Structures are given as structure tokens and as C-alpha cells.
Amino acid sequence: MLTFEQKLRNYSEIALNIGLGLKPGQRLLISCPVEAAPLARMVTEAAYRLETRLVEVLWEDDAVLLSRFQHSRHNNFDEVPHWHSRIHLEHAQRGDPILSIRASNPQLLQGQDPEKVRACNLAFSQSRARYLQEVYNNTFAWSILGVPTQGWAAAVFPDVSASQQQDRLWDAIFAATRADQENALQLWQDHIQNLQQQANLLNARKYTALHFKSPQTDLTIGLPEGHSWETAQHRTTRGALFFANIPSEEVFTLPHREQVDGRVSSTRPLVHQGQLIRNFTVQFKAGKAVHVQAEEGEAALKHLLSTDEGSAFLGEVALVSASSPIQQSGIFFYSTLFDENAASHLAFGQAYPGSLQGGLDMDRATFAAHGGNNSLIHVDFMVGSSDMDVDGILPDGTHEPVMHHGEFVLQNKA
Amino acid sequence: MLTFEQKLRNYSEIALNIGLGLKPGQRLLISCPVEAAPLARMVTEAAYRLETRLVEVLWEDDAVLLSRFQHSRHNNFDEVPHWHSRIHLEHAQRGDPILSIRASNPQLLQGQDPEKVRACNLAFSQSRARYLQEVYNNTFAWSILGVPTQGWAAAVFPDVSASQQQDRLWDAIFAATRADQENALQLWQDHIQNLQQQANLLNARKYTALHFKSPQTDLTIGLPEGHSWETAQHRTTRGALFFANIPSEEVFTLPHREQVDGRVSSTRPLVHQGQLIRNFTVQFKAGKAVHVQAEEGEAALKHLLSTDEGSAFLGEVALVSASSPIQQSGIFFYSTLFDENAASHLAFGQAYPGSLQGGLDMDRATFAAHGGNNSLIHVDFMVGSSDMDVDGILPDGTHEPVMHHGEFVLQNKA
């Protein structure tokens, strides 16, 4: 049984070694909430010990953001500072690694004026657009790490006493990321290899489409020619391996943007920039979400999908076993970083060019002509469950089971 | 007796109303240590209530800086991130106000390699040079506010139990800044008026030089033609009043850069970027510090004075009554922001162009030709004491007492 300090050190090392594949002589940028200073400091020290040349920390604070919504008397929510995105962009363009340490407080902007929230989110997305191009193009190594803050922990464990909530969320995060295991780095290497084998199996089949079927869902997702199933492990344009999300249990590829038809229901709530969207159904026609309905947060969802031309189309389809450790934990994290690893999921918005053969060398128009979707946003939502079957459709039109009752059943045919 | 919360609110209001003279519709930048998040959040809320258009907080962390000195295996301490200075510069050039919330941990870099400290300080000064031009030119309103951190409080109150140190430093800061008084804003208005009267008296005399005399000091400081005695209250080039330091008890002007001769001894330690310099004596000849000697930190002082051509010349002479509240408190703050208000002081480096009539419209060469000093640095050091006399030298060569035994004795001659 490791101490908290040892788990935290494991967590730092997973982030730097597995997440970023940090190399001596690099310059590391860390973004981090001010509340999580102890973790950022530990990562900083670990990075210097790994011979990082320079560590810079760009701090953030939800309370400062919330204060604007609560107390500003101006209606200028489309005015946001650009320096945060610019620092990220310049760093990415130099090819240096970026670690995002993130807390997610789902209740942060609840009750605030949705028009202001929307204007602010849009302006922020626009200011990040050029940076996200570098993300999608694998110009540099990046990874995302969760950190408990009081607001987030309270949302995840509302029935636990306030003094215990953050500890409970730390435990859940350590378990989900294997940081509570002695041999965490080795476990991660094994885990990545398992995911890669799954991706290889899927790639060998060259499906033209997937069919998702459950009592609430009946959806066909076309897959473009040349699509490639990937894990969160990517290679930068300079050839270095990194693993984008800590944790990650998925294999994913891109849908054909114009070949998604049918109906899909969410199986977990979606938390988007402090707003909760719950129990929603989306109807797709020729790729586009033409009708959405939600028990909670419908307006926020519709706002999200109207961000730009591509935001109502899909950019990702990801398969996750319904028995994944995060699903088994029974914890809803109110955070896509974790919750997307509990169930198969889709994403509205931008597709990863790396999911298409040659996609990294295409301009946006060419990428779209090959079926890839472009958008300012990329927002995952969970649709998998233990009563869902997924079939693969082969080029000759025959169907074969890929997942049955939420579990992978595809075997090596060789 | 005000509660802590009330004093903190007073402190925020002094910063925004007196310090920055904040106007509705402005965009406020705050720099702040992560440890002081509660104060930055309170100032943020207060600023939005005063109809600020947008509040941005640029967080800093001493621990991240220290980690580099402790753990980096590279010798690249002349490489520093430029974005911190650039954000300040862009903000200043737009004419928007900047509040610097500062903690000062005098022990931060003690024991670190002085060559690395020097390289890092120089690189940081160079990256700030363009921003400091905007500061010296009064392009925008700025003010500086102190905030206790554990490291700083421990240095100031080493004999107090650790759990009490920060509270004690808060008490000392609230007292020094009048934030512990009900009518704090009115007291500040009165205080500024008193300082202004002192400056007016000095300006009416048009001294050609000052003579500082005590058992340890015998120094003549020439004053250039057109010099102007000022308080910390300045007017931006757009015409708005601001008060640069909270607290401030001084009136100051610029010396003639080539007319400083004699010997001066420090009466308080000087803390410069985490290094302590104590009990030092400086010999001046034709303006330049030609010999320095220190009981502690002599190497750091010599490094400082060799920063650039102007760093060994004086840029400020300031008069502070030896009975000032901060001197009376008996507390050594290990922070120039406070300690310079306990005693008359001088500064190595850049002179304020606003201290010379027409100086704000001069380029650097013209300013120098009029006796103004240019440098990357501006570092105050305290020389006043209750056994010091200061004479003013009139254009006809006669001397008259300005301070006697550390107290102002100059009266209105009208």
C-alpha cells in the first residue's frame, strides 16, 4: 500500500514519462489551477530531475472566471484575454511538450446567464483555434491530467463529508490512472500494448461502417476510406511518442462526416465548460445532428452544436469496454477526461487528422473531402452501455459483431 | 476594531481607489503569487463591482522558480520566459491599470549559486526593460501591494510560532497601510495631501544639492536644474491620478547622475531578489559608486552594480521622517515596498523621468544630458536614521537644514 506522497509521485512520473515522453533538454509548459499548486510543484521538480531545460507554469483560477459572471456590469463576454492561448501556441510551434493539469467543476457556471456563457465559450474557442490546429497536427507532445479541487470533489461525492471529498476523489483518480500501483509505469506500458492490439484488429477489418444498437440507440456510422483506429498514443511530427490522456481506455477513429444516420442516446451526463447536459438523444441525418432533446441542459447543448458549421457533425467514434475499470468503479467523475473511459463514445466537432491515412499532410478542405470534420469544438459524449451491441460492416456489406453487451468480441481472424 | 475580512476589504479598496484610481470600463491586470489567491479574488470582485470591464490575473509562484535553482541540471539561467513581461507591456501600452500583489521571501534564493542568480536576474531585467519604460513614462496607472506568504512571514517574525507568523505580518501590513482604520480612504487622502505639501516646500527652495551627514555618512548629492520633488502620486499621460506604492511615506526626486560624492552607509538591510545585503558602505565619486563594502551579501551587491553602465549611479533620493509609522513599528519587513518608508533612502539605477521637468518628453540621451540616470535596474537602499541631518544647498551656496535628527525641519518661508 503506497502512501499519498508515493502515489502523487507515481502520478507525476506517469504524466512525464508516459503522457509526454519527456526528453532531456526540452522546455515544458504546465497549465494548472492555483488550487493544485502542490501537484504542479511536484511535477516541476520531477521534470527538472529528468533534465528538462526550463519549466513554465501557467496558472488558472476558476474563481476569477466565476467572479466575472457574478459581478461584471458589462456585457462584453466575447472579450477574453488571448495570451493564454498564445503562450500555448508559441510553445507548441517550437515543438515543446505541454501538460494540462485540469480540475473540472461541473457546477461552476450553473445558474449563470447562458448567453454570456455561450459568448465567453465561443470567444475562448476562437482564441484557441490556431493552437488546436497544432494539437490535431501532432506538432508537439501533450497530455492531460486531472486534479481534485474542492468544487469538483463535492460534485462527485455529494454524500461524503466535505473534509473527505477531495481525498476520495484523489483515491478514485489514483485508481483510474494506476498511480496507486507499485509498478505503475510497467502497467501502463502493458495497457498501451493491449489497446494497440485492439486497434490493430480493427484496422485489419477495414470496415466501411459501424452499427450501434441498444434499446435506446440505433445508429449507423460510416467510416471513411483510409480511416485508422488509434489509441491515445500518438507520435509527434518530430517522431516522439506521447500518450494524450491520463487515463485512457479507448480505441478510436473518425466517422465519415456525411455518413452518420439514426438515433443515439447518451448513457452518461456530459459536462461542458461548467454546464451539465443530461439524458439527451440526438437524431442524425447524412452526418448532421438534425434534432436534439435533453432532460437537462438542452439549451446548452443546442448552443454547443451551433458553434460553427462543423459542430453538429461527428469527429470521433471511440470503443470502450463496458467493463472498463472506470465503469467498474461506479463513479461518475463529471469530467470527460475520466468519464469517456467508462463507455463507448462519440464526439461532436473536429476530427483528428491523424485518424486518417495521410490526414496530417492534408489542408482542411482536403481533409473534409475525405470525410474528416472540421470545427472549433471537440466535445465527447458517452453512448455505450452493457446492453449495447456494435457491429462492423465489411466492404461486401456483411455485418459481424465487434462488441456484444458492451464487451469486445472481435477476435484475430488470422 | 475591524474584523480581518473588513481589513482585507479596506486593503482591496485602497489598492483600487487610491493605488490605481480605477475607472469604469478599464481592463485590469493583477499579478499575484498563487498563495495569495484569496486576496486576488477579493480584489477581482471589488474591481468588477467598480465596473471594470475585464480582470485578468497573472499568477506567479516562488516555489517553481526555486525548483529550477535546486534541481535543474542545465546551465541556461539566462533563458527566462518572456511572456510575463510581454503581457505587462501590452497591457501598459493600451493604458490599462496594473496591480502587482507581491510577497517577498528574502531567504528564497539564499545558498543558491550566485552566478546563476545573477544570470537569471539579468535576463529577467532585460525582458522587463521595455515594460519598465512604460512604467517610468507614466503610460498607465500601476500600484504595488504586499501580501504575506509563509516564507516571508517567517523571515519577519522568526521568534513567533509558525502558525502565528502570517497573522502577525497581516497585522503589520494592515497597520502600515491604514487598512485597519474605519475611514481608511479618507486617511489616505489626508496623507497624500500632507506629503504633497512637503514636496511643494522642497520645490519652492530649488536646491542645487543636498548634504547628508551622520556619524556613518557624509554625502553630497547634486540635484539637476528642473528637478521636481514628488510623492508616489503620479498622473498618467492620459491624465489619471494614481498612487504607485501602498504604503508610501516618502517625497523624492532625482539626483544629478554625475554629482554625487562622498560616503554613505546603509541603515537597514537590503533584500534584492531573494538575497540579503547587510551593513554596507558605498563610496561615490562624480556620481559613480567606486567602492562598496558589505558585512553580508557584498558579492550580490557588486553583481547588482555591474548590471549595466547606469547601475552604479543613483536614480533617486528620497526623504522620509525617522518617526514614520513604519519606523515606529520597529518591524523590519525584508521588503523594500515597506522598508523604504522607514528611512530616507537612495536608489541605484534608473531615475524617474517624471522627476525632471519635461523629462517625460525626453529620449534617454536627452534625459541623461540633463542629469537623469538610465539603467535596467532601480533598487532602493535605506540610509536615513534619527542621527542624520540633511541640509539643502541653495543656488548661492548657503546651507539650510531640511532634516535634523531625522525629522523634517523645513518650514514655509512665505
TrEMBL record, chains A, B:
<keyword id="KW-0031">Aminopeptidase</keyword>
<dbReference type="InterPro" id="IPR035097">
    <property type="entry name" value="M29_N-terminal"/>
</dbReference>
<keyword id="KW-0482">Metalloprotease</keyword>
<keyword id="KW-0645">Protease</keyword>
<keyword id="KW-0378">Hydrolase</keyword>
<comment type="similarity">
    <text>Belongs to the peptidase M29 family.</text>
</comment>
<dbReference type="InterPro" id="IPR052170">
    <property type="entry name" value="M29_Exopeptidase"/>
</dbReference>
<dbReference type="Pfam" id="PF02073">
    <property type="entry name" value="Peptidase_M29"/>
</dbReference>
<keyword id="KW-0479">Metal-binding</keyword>
<keyword id="KW-0175">Coiled coil</keyword>
<feature type="coiled-coil region">
    <location>
        <begin position="178"/>
        <end position="205"/>
    </location>
</feature>
<protein>
    <submittedName>
        <fullName>Aminopeptidase</fullName>
    </submittedName>
</protein>
<dbReference type="GO" id="GO:0004177">
    <property type="term" value="F:aminopeptidase activity"/>
</dbReference>
<dbReference type="InterPro" id="IPR000787">
    <property type="entry name" value="Peptidase_M29"/>
</dbReference>
